[in-house]
Design a protein that fits this description.
Length: about 250
């Protein structure tokens, strides 16, 4: 296998793992709300709609960026590694914080603290929409960037086939892993930190693969990688705290 082919398949494989990690984040957040609100169909419809909406918007914005000159191609590589770094940060910080915010809102609803129960109920439905849409936006932003980089190494029809095939396969694997392995064995928070770990590794891997190192992106990816390891260690404590907020201390 030539070096060009190896880079092609390695980049596609990184996309596979990022897609799987993103889907773990979606299901982790939905599972928390399903647990609290005891409703499934409406939650899955609303949240997957928000994810796909964000993904479509992100893809549209990325396709508007020109990638013809050497400078524009360099900017594309920088943006790709940056958005992958943001994905790891979303799993390591934004999603766990959202889960705790949802649990705190349920505590306020249950104890009638600060807000009327009706307002707390509405907030429970709303808190997760923006993070899910943001996650979809980040996922959508990177797809056209990966396609632009891959077109340098393969025909366009091959790029589209591999890009969407591996992206959707990664999403399926992420969903199955969350359902069958991560959630039963690790719970919500440690599953999120596993997702953050994979996303941070993918960001560092792609930076090395493209031989494009941005000091700020590298340091943040390394920080999120370290934070995910710490989070996996303390994830059980966060899970207990969330349960106490939901059901009472």
């Amino acid at each position: 296998m030539s070096e060009s082919s190896l880079r092609f398949y390695s980049l596609v494989l990184a996309l596979f793992f990022v897609a799987a990690a993103s889907m773990v984040q979606v299901f982790a957040l939905v599972s928390v709300l399903t647990y609290i609100l005891n409703t499934k169909l409406a939650l899955y419809t609303l949240y997957f709609g928000a994810f796909l909406f964000g993904m479509g918007g992100g893809s549209y914005l990325s396709t508007q960026v020109k990638r013809t000159t050497k400078r524009e191609i360099s900017a594309t590589r920088n943006n790709l590694t940056t958005f992958q770094m943001y994905l790891s940060g979303t799993a390591a910080i934004v999603m766990p914080a959202t889960c705790m915010l949802i649990a705190a809102t349920e505590y306020a609803r249950r104890t009638h603290w600060l807000l009327p129960p009706s307002i707390s109920s509405v907030l429970l439905w709303c808190w997760g929409i923006l993070p899910i849409a943001y996650l979809g936006y980040l996922t959508g932003r990177q797809l056209p960037m990966v396609a632009a980089i891959l077109k340098k190494r393969a025909a366009e029809d091959q790029v589209v086939r591999f890009l969407f095939g591996y992206d959707y396969a990664g999403a399926l694997v992420g969903a199955l892993l969350f359902l069958l392995v991560l959630f039963p064995q690790f719970g919500v928070f440690r599953s999120l930190y596993v997702s953050a770990f994979v996303s941070a590794l993918a960001s560092l891997f792609v930076q090395g693969l493209l031989s494009f190192w941005n000091r700020q992106v590298f340091l943040r990816s390394a920080l999120f990688l370290l934070l995910s390891v710490v989070g996996m260690y303390y994830g059980t404590s966060l899970e207990i705290l969330m349960d106490n907020l939901v059901f009472g201390f």
